[in-house]
Design goal:
By secondary structure, this protein is mainly beta. The protein contains one helix and eight strands, in the order αββββββββ. It has a five-stranded mixed barrel. A hairpin with a 5-residue loop joins strand 7 and strand 8. The radius of gyration is 16 Å and the shape is globular. The two termini are 26 Å apart. The model has no long low-confidence stretch (mean pLDDT 93).
């Protein structure tokens, strides 16, 4: 299992569109941008809705349960900051509460070989510093009431 405490992660820099997402994550809450016109959730955040091009967008809390939509196993790394954790699973997750909004992350607390399309996962929050907390994912607990 990869020990992410040995990796030096790059620190995201929030901008005007992503700041509400990062502020919520820092509070341990997953919030995604939702169009108030058509109801579409989207991630990453944009200035307009990717479905109907409306500009009335708000961030709403969503549950962090979903399924692995796609994954890749990283056996080599071009970024030396990740060398201590290879191999690891980089995953794309489709959240139950926000179909179509895909989130990237790493599969934590499991062997990389456990990453499979369709596997149930849940969000966990990894604090990088006082301002940035990174939403990541682990395999869903078996006693979950999904």
């Amino acid at each position: 299992m990869s020990d992410w405490s040995k990796a030096t992660r790059p620190i995201p820099v929030p901008n005007e569109w992503t700041k509400p997402f990062w502020d919520a994550a820092n509070r341990g809450v997953l919030e995604l941008q939702r169009c108030q016109s058509c109801g579409h959730f989207q991630h990453p955040p944009y200035a307009t809705c990717t479905q109907c091009v409306a500009t009335d967008l708000k961030f709403e809390a969503v549950r962090g349960a979903g399924t692995i939509y796609a994954y890749t196993i990283m056996y080599h790394t071009g970024d030396k900051r990740f060398a201590s954790v290879v191999p690891y699973a980089s995953i794309i997750v489709e959240l139950d509460a926000a179909p179509g909004a895909l989130m990237a992350g790493n599969l934590l607390e499991a062997e990389y070989t456990e990453a499979k399309v369709g596997r149930r996962v849940e969000v966990v929050f990894e604090k990088l510093n006082d301002n940035i907390t990174l939403p990541q994912f682990r395999l869903a607990r078996t006693n979950s009431t999904e």
